[in-house]
Amino acid sequence: MIKEAYKLTATEALALCAIGKLTSVELVKSCLAQMTATDDAIKAWAYLDPEAAILQATECDRIRKAGLAIGPLHGIPVGLKDIIDTADMPTARGTPIFRGRRTDHDARLVELLRDAGAVIMGKTVTTELAFVHANETRNPHSPDHSPGGSSSGSAAAVAAHHVPLAIGTQTNGSVIRPASYCGTFGFKPTRGVVSRTGLLQTSVSLDQVGCFGRSLADVALLTDVISGYDERDATSFARPRPDMSAGAAEDVPATPELVWFNLPFNDRLSDDAKEGLDAVLDILGPQVTKMEPADTLSNLVAVQARIHEYEICKHQAELFDGNWDEISETLKPVITRGRQITQAEYEDALLVKASAEKFFADFFLEFDAIIAPSAAGEAPTFGTGTGDPIFCTLWTLAGLPCVSLPLLVGDTGLPIGVQLIGPAEKDNRLLRTARWLQTQLANAAE
After folding, report:
1. Which burial class, exposed, middle or buried, applies to 62 when counting CB atoms under 10 A from its CB (0-12, 13-18, 19+)?
2. What's the CA gap between 55 and 124, in Å, rounded?
């Protein structure tokens, strides 16, 4: 038995299982033991059924011993954000309104995970309706701090070594920011790569699926598994997906050209985050072009908010009207504001969104990636909110692939991520550039 198997990345665990040095049952039991030891303090899980997880793992081991076909995540534990439907587990969506809620179906991405042999461990805590009001999860690096939102439990579960992989979603900054705060890899692929069928809908235009892992190879592998066309999803596209794993393993054919935008809200960066990012930019030197973007680019922050607030009020109108007393005081003002947005204002915002998508399509003809903060700095103190998502907003609005790399450490020892953003539907190229960046910085540190 591998000692401390819970510390393995998914890629490492798969390699050991392939040569018979680790079983899925051993891996799952090791992860469950780590949960037992630490989750009372972290509170990453909304639902967990250890017996069901061990039964899944036992079946995976039986299949392997029988010499039957196995999938790319065979026997690997995965956590699901608690807005993702499963037939065999409740999906409470971070609110008492849906406590004990059951469905008779799996989300499309869960079907793909099961087909790939993954062990679905349970549901990770999310914020209320995957929006602004925090729930109970704490940062594994310091329980006095937030793990971010809204994919708080997924990021914390991976950072705490409860599972090697977890699924989250991002409508503004809900994958990249928690990954930064918790010191994990976070990856949000191009909008439309992963189906959202069977997930809570807060914004049909903006909701996107992402994932957490402890290596670049892991988030690439997980994304490959859950990718695919789904005609039921309005943003899903019927074209081949990029090969994420190939991209994460490739060397760059030429030194990438990166861009840093001097945006007006860069002054929200903490001193330690700015110092760390400046050091990264210094190492990269002439490979980074610093640019003063037009004001219209920073104005996209308001456009994202308008679309998000209008659409959640539209999609969840019946829920809000029928359960107003059970909605948090944090969310109520957002709903009130969203209900004041007119149809004309909303349609104008959608037109601006489309123009932003075109702008970036043209922009990336000259550059490989944008380098940017993942978050404003270290995780905020627990109870003061889930942090500022503004360093993710523009890229989410445009549906671009984004990856957060756990490269920096703040003044109090908490992690700070560095974000790379790439061209739409060229996620493999973005991951290849991310691999190059890791190598450059590792060589500079030697």
Report:
1. exposed
2. 20
Confidence of residue 295 (pLDDT cuts 50, 70, 90): confident
Q: In terms of Cα–Cα distance, which of 187, 261, 180, 257 is closest to 219? A: 187
Q: How far is CA 80 from CA 13, 111, 168, in A?
A: 19, 12, 7
Helices (H), 299-412: 300-315, 317-322, 332-338, 343-363, 390-397
How far, in Å, CA of 2 to CA of 23, rounded? 9
Greatest C-alpha distance within the chain: 62
Question: At 254, which CATH number?
Answer: 3.90.1300.10
Q: How far apart are CA 428 and CA 383, in angstroms?
A: 37
The structural domain count of the chain equals: 1
- Whether the pTM exceeds 0.90: the reply is yes
CB burial of residue 268 (10 Å; 0-12, 13-18, 19+): middle
How many CB atoms within 10 Å of residue 59?
15
The CA distance from 299 to 61, in Å, is 53
Helix or strand holding residue 258 (H, E): strand 258-261
Query: Which residue range is the domain that position 79 belongs to?
Result: 1-446
